[in-house]
Amino acid sequence: MAKKDNNQRHCSFCGRGEDEVELLLTGIDGHICNDCAQRAKEMVDIAIPTHTSSEHIAEEFGALPTPKEIKTYLDEYIIGQDAAKKYLSVAVYNHYKRILNKNKASDDDQVEIEKSNIVMVGSTGTGKTLLARTIAKLLKVPFTIVDATVFTEAGYVGEDVESILSRLLQVADFDVEKAERGIVFIDEIDKIARKSDNPSITRDVSGEGVQQGMLKLLEGSIVNVPPKGGRKHPDQDYIHVDTHNILFICGGAFDGIEKKIAQRLNTHTVGYDSVQNLKKIDASDLMQYVEPQDLKSFGLIPEIIGRLPVLTYLKPLDRTALRNILTEPKNSIIKQYIKLFALDDIALTFEDAVLDYIVDQAVEYKLGARGLRSIVETIMMDAMYEAPSSDTKSLTITLDYARQQFEKTNIPAM
Fold it and tell me: Which of 24, 48, 327, 341 is a good FRET partner for 78, with 20 to 30 A between their CA atoms?
């Protein structure tokens, strides 16, 4: 062993000289090199786990927007659905206010605020997914969309419900603390409804069994998550995720729930006063009267309904709303296509009659807002193929051109 040079400083932990390390920090009675300092930090983190403070979270979020500010932001991207926006804005605000103030509560404060998971009921194309995605964009938190139809009860072919959190971790770059403050949108929640109230010799592996498996996620617990998703395996290492601060937003079309609502409303029509109330019911939009017992009648178990305390609905989109969706939002469909052509230095314009024609087709084929994009894509396909190779500097889409392009598809009316 080489003799130490007493004229130079040495690390008090590993004994290496200052010429053998990148950095040597000097204390009162000793020194520590950068390698030993790093190892010491790692050991401290293991021995004393650090918890994210409310101040750190506040820095990440910035100033938490108020419910009115959240709704105003949603109005810029989503047309209509004021009732759903208000419910969602208040629920999200209360949820993150709860997180930000959790560590500020005193020991004497025995009031613990529970999170407000949300369930949105509305037909396809009304904006359920867009609402959730836009709020996540505003708050800059990890956000993922999962489809409830892929999940099966543990032990059967399909995905475990824990894979929901695997996808959230991937979005958060496997930063567990960041993922634990994210938002999960569970789409097609109505597809895991209990198939029947009657007992059966066969298991409802993609219905009630999945609902039972989701209870611990929605309520809040420490969940063992496979790092790569998929099935759990006894020999693999798990990531431990606390779901207490993860906001779950569930959405579903609940096709046929109007019949359940109508049955419930009819059971209350007894006596003169009930006849008067019946006149106030809008039979064309029964979805606005949805209540938790209707979800139970549809096939959701009471336990999962109790863990989704905020229930709101989305109105079917009428002709006026669809027309506004085409042009008004910041990222409206028409603005997107104008931007696409502008990137090729082509000025794109649409005749007003074309926009009305697109809306007419969406209504006829019952496609909702989601169908608007498909119709515009069909009309613009040939133009997008030809224009980049041509010398055209401007392009106007006329009604005759739009009708000619759309009729090529031969889509049968519904």
Answer: 341
Alpha carbon distance 360, 355 (integer Å): 9
pLDDT band at 401 (very low <50, low <70, confident <90, very high): very high
Q: What's the token pair of residue 312?
A: 């709101």
Domain 319-407 top-level CATH class: mainly alpha
Instruction: Give the pLDDT confidence score for residue 349 in this predicted structure.
Output: 94
- For the chain, the maximum distance between any two Cα atoms, rounded to a whole number of angstroms, is 105
Domain locations along the chain:
9-50, 54-104+114-313, 319-407
pLDDT digits (tens, 9 = 90+) for 326-345: 988 888 899 999 999 999 99
CA distance 292 to 313: 12
Query: Per CATH, which fold does 54-104+114-313 belong to?
Result: Rossmann fold (3.40.50)
Cβ 85 vs Cβ 131: under 8 Å: yes
